[in-house]
Amino acid sequence: MTRKKAPKASRLIAQSQPNDVRSEILSRIFDKVLDLPSYVSELNTLLSSVPVDLKRVGEIIREHPKLSDHIMHLCKLRIAGFDDQNGSIDHGVVFLGTQQMRTLILACCMIVDIGSCYSLSQLRSFWQHGLLTASLSERIALYIGYPGPTTAWRAGLFHDAGALALVRWAADTRSAGPSANAICGEMIEEERKSFGTDHCFVGSLIGREWGLPEEIVDVLEFHHNPDGSKYDRVLVGIVAAADKYCVGRGIKFQLVKEPASEPREDSFQQALCYLLPGLDNDLARNLKDVLEITYLQKINHLASDCGSVFGGVGLQV
Question: Which residues 6+ apart lie within 8 Å of 186 measured at CB?
Fold first, then answer.
């Protein structure tokens, strides 16, 4: 099978701050983990072109049943009335638009290719966290009047792509460290201590390698440090807030199952005011309630959907 190399990523690694260990790990991640099949590159190119060859996009996806199943399930989540009888990949591209479908396909490709070393429960935890973060990001965007709610959904879905790659590399090299969950996207300092880098930087390289828009790359790199944003501070703050809510609810990427904990209302409300500048205490309190309602509306549906994608087993939340 022809594999896709990562010349752009190699240049970015070389240009990053000097750190021999970090550079070695990043190079290995891109050589061994993100050396994705050639069809991923072809799909990315097709969906970045004008006009889009919908027939060829559909042909490639249908040639890979696991990828096709993932994408069809996500289309059902995003498109009212979409099902196996009256929907197709071609229809999905038309309804969602090429950029939303492109992000969706890249996320699915990572799950199918990189996720092969994970257990079903681990993959479900990653997928559910991404989907719920996407839904909450879109809801926050609508609440605060951000002009690109669909962009917020895309950024939320893809925000932890670097964690999936970093954990896969650690698993392959038995470098997970003392706490397996410490490198799953929520403990930045532990990642840096173990690898000299973190999933945010790895994610930004992935985004640049695949030519994602700057605002998405900005989220990949700075969702744990919104003040470092270089392009769209509001979007980064939106996804950071959605991510924080999910983690507080115990909906996060996990190698080992941990008990969920209730988020502290006062601290989360304060976090919203920091993550979304311009939000006063009253608006933050109202937004917290909106997120709670959205969470309750989405969680059972997502649990069932993720279960059907990954072997028909429902998620425990």
Answer: 247, 252, 253
